[in-house]
Amino acid sequence: MSKKRIVVLYGGKADEHPISCISAASVLNAIDTERFEPIPVGITKDGSWIVDGEDPRGWNLSNGTLPEVKAVEGSREVVLDIALGQDGFFAKTGDSLESFGHVDAVFPVLHGPFGEDGTVQGLLEMMNVPYVGCGVLASAACMDKHYTKVLLAAAGIPVAPGITLDARSYDKASEFAANGADILAQVQAAGLQYPLFVKPSRAGSSFGVTKVEHEDDAAELAAAVFEASKHDWRVLVEQGIDGREIECAVLAPKAGEQPRVSWPGEIVLDSRATDEDSFYDFDSKYMDSSASHVEVPANLPKETLERVRQTAAKAFVAVDGMGLSRVDSFVTPDGGVMVNEINTMPGFTSISMYPKAWEATGVGYSALITELIEGILR
């Protein structure tokens, strides 16, 4: 049987660029090369697509350095001919184009805007190229936490109380500070309880997220909104939930099939032993291995774990999910389940929650990659 040619996309223009690089490194190191011929295609931070750049298989975060896709000596630009579809991938050398050959599918290991938000998915739809993961609607809606909440609430799934702000009316830090009282008034009118979490609506990996703890402190609130606005003009102010953050991996490789759900897992913040106010920010996710560890299944009663699984499956269907997603929920002290957000291309390193959850549920990392790819092949 001939190998299927799979383009693995990584990097991109989003803040999550280095995490995409690490996820792609793990995928490329674990993909079944007896079945598939992977073609790594990197996207630089300015949006250029290249092949034959630095080999991502050697990238990791062990030395504390964030990897980046860059054009290097010998790398070539990628040119797409949309009309040619699966035969429309070319590498440019001078004035000549070299075909990739027939591309059977694309695995877009891209996190955040310009990759996980429906943009790349729309491009591949136009080319009629099969790809791993959610379609345009689910990708776009789940990238935007505001609209995720709208869809989930419409499906009767509980979400955290909050408000959405349009930060485009404020141009600089001083203007945010000057309008702090107005922002505070909106929080008070919504009856939100402290602590608050202020976050960009369309960003991932905890970029721009601030915990606001001092009630009625307009300056602190305005500064948090300003920080979030650096990543997105749409800003969420959400009530902090008294609950544990539990994550559940959902898998549906073939279109139309019922989603399968892993055992729920929990990121345990070891730093809370010394700092009760710590939360899961970018550094504790990726840069400080001593800050946290993964527990799957989470230490919860079985009936609560099953409730989390059922809610995750319902949320996946509510947003028209396909392929894979990680549904992040809060479990309250009374056993209630509230969905926080849905990641349509979650972190995909071998030690990320999504693969770890499936490993604990009986699906190994390489087998997971194989299922996702084979589910979309024609």
From TrEMBL:
Binding of Mg(2+) 1: at which residues?
Answer: D328, E341
Q: What positions does the domain ATP-grasp occupy?
A: 149-374
| Gene Ontology biological process terms, A to Z | cell wall organization; peptidoglycan biosynthetic process; regulation of cell shape
The UniProt keyword set, sorted, is: ATP-binding, Cell shape, Cell wall biogenesis/degradation, Cytoplasm, Ligase, Magnesium, Manganese, Metal-binding, Nucleotide-binding, Peptidoglycan synthesis
Q: What catalytic reaction does the record list?
A: 2 D-alanine + ATP = D-alanyl-D-alanine + ADP + phosphate + H(+)
Cellular location(s): Cytoplasm
Cofactor(s) listed in the protein's UniProt record: Mn(2+); Mg(2+)
Task: Please name the pathway.
Answer: Cell wall biogenesis; peptidoglycan biosynthesis
Gene Ontology terms: cellular component: cytosol
- For this protein, the Enzyme Commission number is 6.3.2.4
Can you tell me which residues bind ATP? 145, 197-199, 205-206, 238-245, 340-341
Q: Which family does it belong to?
A: Belongs to the D-alanine--D-alanine ligase family.
Name the HAMAP family on file. Dala_Dala_lig (MF_00047)
Q: Which NCBIfam families match?
A: D_ala_D_alaTIGR, PRK01966.1-4
What's the stated role of this polypeptide?
Cell wall formation.
Q: What is this protein called?
A: D-alanine--D-alanine ligase
Q: Which organism is it from?
A: Bifidobacterium callimiconis
Lineage per the UniProt record = Bacteria, Bacillati, Actinomycetota, Actinomycetes, Bifidobacteriales
Gene (UniProt): ddl
